[in-house]
Write a structure and sequence with these properties.
This protein is α+β, with helices and mostly antiparallel strands. Helix content is 31%, strand content 24%. It contains 3 helices and 7 strands; from the N terminus they run H-E-E-E-E-H-E-H-E-E. The protein has helices at residues 3-10, 60-82, 107-122, and strands at residues 28-31, 34-37, 43-44, 47-48, 90-99, 129-135, 144-151. Strand 5, helix 3 and strand 6 (129-135) form a beta-alpha-beta unit. Helix 1 (3-10) crosses helix 3 and helix 2 runs parallel beside helix 3 (107-122).
Length: 152
């Protein structure tokens, strides 16, 4: 285990198996020194952790934890592509999609679940640019989806 996985272990977390795609795509693609992940849903052990809209059936606090799981799944996709997470020089960009009710405006706070996990796991290399976007619906009625771009 490298430094990144050690930091995750200190949080009581481990890198899961890569979540199986729900359609025709791959979890991550390497192009030169960059790895792009596909959008990762809050899957744990093959099961979607929650469904519904943030601000409706899903609380903002629960959505933060779901975004964290999405980020953990994105980390798994990166690891499957490069083998060693310590090869990541920088988390460049994070995009967090939040399926939310029309009046919910806390998308940035939900996205913090992913951002803070990446910051803890990768240290200074985990500081990134980010977009947090509210959307009407996500695949499988997931409340949150996260994709990341890293430099190797």
């Amino acid at each position: 285990m490298g430094a990144v996985e050690d930091r995750l272990a200190q949080l009581g977390l481990s890198v899961p198996e890569v979540a199986k795609p729900v359609a025709s795509y791959v979890p991550a693609v390497r192009s030169g020194s960059q790895v792009f992940t596909s959008g990762q849903l809050p899957m744990r052990e093959g099961t979607l952790m929650a469904t519904g809209k943030v601000g409706g059936e899903v609380s903002a606090d629960d959505a933060v934890a779901l975004a964290q799981q999405c980020a953990l799944n994105a980390i798994a996709a990166v690891k499957a592509e490069v083998g060693d997470l310590d090869a990541v020089k920088r988390v460049v960009k994070v995009v967090c999609f939040v399926a939310s009710t029309p009046d919910f405006t806390g998308q940035p706070q939900v996205a913090n679940g992913a951002s803070e996990l990446l910051g803890t796991a990768f240290g200074d290399a985990g500081v990134h640019a980010r977009s947090a976007v509210g959307v009407p619906v996500l695949p499988l009625d997931a409340p949150v989806e996260v994709e990341i771009l890293v430099e190797i």
